[in-house]
Design goal:
- The structure is a single chain.
- The chain is of the alpha+beta class.
- It contains 2 helices and 4 strands; from the N terminus they run αββββα.
- The protein has a 4-stranded antiparallel beta sheet.
- A hairpin with a 4-residue loop joins strand 1 and strand 2.
- The longest helix has 30 residues.
Length: about 130
Amino acid sequence: MSEAAHADAFSKLSDLMAKARAGKIDFESRNPDAKVMELPGYAYIIELRPKKGAATVFGKPARLVRLYYAEPLWLTDQLVALHLATKPDGQDVNSEQNAAIREAGYRADGWSLYSKQLATGKEKANGTDDAIQ
């Protein structure tokens, strides 16, 4: 991506993340801010989808920026930003989007395991034996 495309994508993604924090993400319209995707083992994966920008190659956006979040099944109401990626604007012949979703899932696994270990360590340090299962 060009420097102009990076700047445009960063601005749009920052605005979209602010909407997400405020709970104002549009999932319903014809051109939604985000899409809910499924990945086994997760409540869901959310793909934040900044609108197409002005930075183009031959009049067409070269790449679409996506930020993937996951909600681990064991920790509800907690979204974890896991992977910032781009994908082609058009046919995804190399399945880049699926690879990005899998990467978000792998990172969610790692984050979940690390978080559980931290919680278990804190409980043992407090003198309890209640480990998170």
